[in-house]
Amino acid sequence: MAEKNIPSIVISRLPKYLITLERLSAMGVENTSSGELGALLNITPAQIRKDLSFFGGFGKKGSGYAIPHLINSIRSILNLDSVWDVAIIGAGKIGQALALYEGFLNRGFSNKILFDADPQKIGQKIGNCQVFDIKNLKEKLREYDIKVALLAVPQVHAQEVADQLVQAGIKAILNYTPVYLTCPNDEVYVQQIDPILQLQHMTYYLK
């Protein structure tokens, strides 16, 4: 996809289209239009058509989009044809909540293993995840061939652990710490999850 120079903002909207289409499918709807999707997502129909045009033609004028076909196409574009195993780094409150969350699997992800430095947590099982010593991070990530990590360690250790993740072959990091990570490897994608920033964004609009 990078060869087509597809804007990141377009990629970021595809999961929104996917979850909406899956919701319509669960309701028994078989066809939709850019207008209907736009109304549900507060996105203009023209923007939806433009986004999808980056990946080929999916709809027919006058008949819209066949929902099952569009779902399969978007899942393929997002590399969700198979389930991705995920490692959670940090077994604190956030890490445990992630390990216990059951919504990952039906969205294409499976929590596989968990890491922590606390001897009292090492060896335990949280959800479906065995807790391993973070000292064995690289070894276990390579053993399980994991490419996706959720980072939920104390912020003082965030960059250090992120560097270890990159060295172990991780290709995508979802960062739950407030630290903005530097990543020298441009093949590793880092996404920031910071609820404080989102709250601060929203409070601008509260007069």
Description:
- This protein is α/β, with parallel strands linked by helices and 207 residues long.
- The protein has 2 domains: 2-77, Arc Repressor Mutant, subunit A (Orthogonal Bundle); 84-197, Rossmann fold, CATH 3.40.50.720.
- The chain has 8 helices and 10 strands.
- The chain has helices spanning 8-26, 34-41, 45-53, 67-77, 93-100, 137-144, 158-167, 195-203, and strands spanning 31-32, 59-60, 64-66, 84-89, 109-116, 125-126, 129-133, 148-151, 172-175, 189-192.
- The strands form 2 sheets. The chain has a 7-stranded mixed beta sheet with strand order 6-7-5-4-8-9-10. A 3-stranded antiparallel beta sheet has the order 1-3-2.
- The chain is elongated.
- It starts with 7 loop residues before the first helix and ends with a helix.
- The model has no long low-confidence stretch (mean pLDDT 92).
